[in-house]
Amino acid sequence: MSEMVSEVITLIIMAFALGMDAFSVGLGMGMYKLRLRKIFNIGITIGLFHVWMPLVGLFAGKFLSEKFGVFASFIGGLLLIVLGGQMVWSTLKKGDEKVITPIGFGLLLFALSVSLDSFSIGLTLGIYGAKTVMVILCFGIVATILTWAGLLLGRKVQSWIGTYSEALGGAILLAFGIKLLIAFW
Questions:
Q1: What does the UniProt keyword field contain (predicted)?
Q2: Which residues fall within 8 angstroms of residue 170, CB to CB, at 6 or more apart?
Q3: What would the mean pLDDT of 25-32 be, rounded to a whole number?
Q4: How far is it, in rounded angstroms, from Cα 8 to Cα 134?
């Protein structure tokens, strides 16, 4: 019994560490003018990606090398740079049109970018034979909660800094993407 409790605690800590990027990116994305319903949907989407990606990683972990996990971080960094750059660019332009928003395809890019590291962790956990249900439940629940927290905090900050909030959000995404790329090299 104590072995199972130890494994759950380890998985929750790991899920929290993986979910912090969802929190950070959620903080940036929360600076869009989002309604609570959209924030709820974004959190659920991120949570589902944090279930799906490690699940795929767990199954693929038996077949793929560890080098693919590093490549996943590289792709995630590039996606965050594209999202952040678009947010900063849209505030510099005079028009209100946005190329990428946290709706539809933009939401899928957002979810993919913050869950790619869950895939690489899933690869490792698959190699070591972790319990699949516990992994996906911990990762999904923690990522959803942290995403909601980031989005709600970003929404609050957006009201404090007004029109520059989207540029700040984009800068956060850019910085996080650059950090992932630097870690890749």
A1: Cell membrane, Ion transport, Manganese, Membrane, Transmembrane, Transmembrane helix, Transport
A2: 28, 83, 84, 85, 86, 87, 88, 89, 90, 91
A3: 78
A4: 7
Contact assessment for residue 181 and residue 77, using Cβ atoms and an 8 Å cutoff: yes
Residues 180 and 73 sit within 8 Å (Cβ to Cβ): yes
Compute the C-alpha angle 169/172/174, nearest 5°: 110
For residue 119, which of 100, 134, 144, 136 has the smallest C-alpha distance? 136
Cβ atoms 169, 156 nearer than 8 A: no
Amino acid identity, position 32: Y
Q: What are the residues whose beta carbons fall under 8 Å from the beta carbon of 95, sequence distance 6 or more? A: none
pLDDT band at 149 (very low <50, low <70, confident <90, very high): very high
Collapsing DSSP to helix, strand or coil, 62 comes out as coil
* Torsion sign (Cα): 132, 53, 75, 84: negative
- In a 13 Å sphere around the CA of 67, the CA atoms on its Cβ side amount to 1
Contact 114, 29 (CB under 8 A): no
Encoded tokens for 41: 């949907």
What confidence tens digit (pLDDT) does each residue in 160-182 have? 766 565 677 677 767 877 877 78
